[in-house]
């Protein structure tokens, strides 16, 4: 097969490992900087042009679209879709996954358990908003944050109110969420490929930190999921329309609740913690699905 990895960071662990895994399995793999692609949107003959040449003959793409490049990145993925190229993740599913609110709305519709979450536009409704999640302590999140930045734990009603006002004053979109205290600063990253969880790790936040993000100093180790956790993860990826996804769960008193679903989950943390060849599994998935056309 001829595979394109859409990434602006060829030296990143995830990109390098995907290239290696593809080449090892006898494929031709190219890393394409999607920001350098331009498109020809002619009727019946869609094209992607890269460094002056039309990209042709690709069987599959693996989009690794950065959080700050969703708009242009998904436009390039869509163009490949128009050309009939199989994509590890559809453009629409990537767009949805980037908006935490949209993501939670889709999961809720499927009956998937979530932390109680509220969203409002106007600061006039702050009291009501705080009440929807039964008051403090509560978590406040920027709608488009990543790596734990823009996630705040407000321990009291007053803190909650002033943080919400501050964010709204900057015109930032936020959601408020029930704080799952019993998770103990840990979450589960379930790596889904196709309709299976192929690897899972537990991330534990640094001492005194409720955010488990590895970028915030968290540590990770391999974990065995319960059947319920497993099915929650695969159902979540499916609800989002993602074929490759990192589904993050919290262990709450009422069972697993989904926090978010990532469409370009990093490979380094999960491969290191679990020793599973995640990149190889992604390539295998393409082999099984792309050739079917
Ligand atoms: P990001 O996209 O920035 O990673 P998340 O929504 O994943 O944002 O939140 C970052 C971390 O904060 C999570 O990994 C989790 O450890 C913690 N966290 C987020 N929401 C909650 C919550 N409702 N209850 C308890 N901990 C939470
Ligand atoms: Mg997260």
Question: What keyword list fits this structure?
Answer:
single chain; 293 residues; alpha+beta; Rossmann fold; Dna Ligase, domain 1; D-amino Acid Aminotransferase, Chain A, domain 1; 3 domains; 5-stranded antiparallel beta sheet; 4-stranded parallel beta sheet; 33% helix; binds adenosine-5'-diphosphate; binds magnesium ion
Radius of gyration: 20 Å
CATH topology of the largest domain: Rossmann fold
Number of helices: 9
Biggest beta-sheet profile: 5 strands, antiparallel
Topology as H/E string? Answer: EHEEEEEHEHHEHEEHEEEEHEEHH
Please name the CATH architecture of the largest domain. 3-Layer(aba) Sandwich
Largest beta sheet: strand ordering: 14-13-12-15-16
* Overall geometric form: globular
Number of domains: 3
Number of beta strands: 16
Q: What is the topology?
A:
Layout: E1 2-6, H1 13-24, E2 28-32, E3 37-40, E4 47-50, E5 53-54, E6 60-63, H2 70-82, E7 86-87, H3 91-97, H4 100-109, E8 117-119, H5 126-132, E9 138-142, E10 151-154, H6 157-169, E11 174-178, E12 186-193, E13 196-204, E14 219-222, H7 227-240, E15 244-252, E16 255-262, H8 268-274, H9 278-290
Parallel strand pairs: 1-2, 1-6, 6-7
Antiparallel strand pairs: 3-4, 4-5, 8-11, 9-10, 9-11, 12-13, 12-15, 13-14, 15-16
Helix pairs in contact: 1-9, 2-3
The chain binds adenosine-5'-diphosphate (ADP) and magnesium ion.
Magnesium ion binds next to loops.
